[in-house]
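Q: Hi! First time asking for a complex rather than a single chain. Here are the components, and I think there are two in total. Is that enough to go on?
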Amino acid sequence: GIQVEQSPPDLILQEGANSTLRCNFSDSVNNLQWFHQNPWGQLINLFYIPSGTKQNGRLSATTVATERYSLLYISSSQTTDSGVYFCAVDYSWGKLQFGAGTQVVVTP
Amino acid sequence: GAGVSQSPSNKVTEKGKDVELRCDPISGHTALYWYRQSLGQGLEFLIYFQGNSAPDKSGLPSDRFSAERTGGSVSTLTIQRTQQEDSAVYLCASSLDGGPPGQYFGPGTRLTVT
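A: Yes, that's all I need. Here is the structure of the assembled complex.
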């Protein structure tokens, strides 16, 4: 099956810092989503981004489908950005294969 | 509008008992998915419903697991003869038609099998 690898596994940031999270996938995909799982366990849909670049406030994402990777940028991080960020790829008719996630801790 | 809702939020059951978990998708979403999240296995796909088509059950881990979707809306995931390894958070998601803007998740049901 398709492999989805995220890096780094853990990230500690000081408030105000910028960071980049990476997602590599092993095969062609129909689409890719980024999610934020907050400390209460809720998965929040950040981006639907099969290719190209999108921005939403302090977050932006870029997917280069031909090279099988996606990047999530967090700028001017805030403590509310803490949680786990998941990359998930649609590999077959809407079924998502998730990566293991990047645990982000933003300290005041 | 209202998001995906799931009930119960927590369920503790004894090994060997049957459990039913419920999911109410976002109104108008034709696609509905079940996933589970456990410490050892991460987030895993279980089953996928799209409109009136036969469900894709390829992710169900054993025949103790089944799901149905009534009237193209509410879905119930049933686990028979629960085992301790079934303990996990069961997540439901829905999407407009399987395409953009992607899947939206409910808050999950935390299942503990004692």
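A: The first strand of chain B starts at residue 5 and ends at 7. Let me know if you'd like any chain examined more closely.
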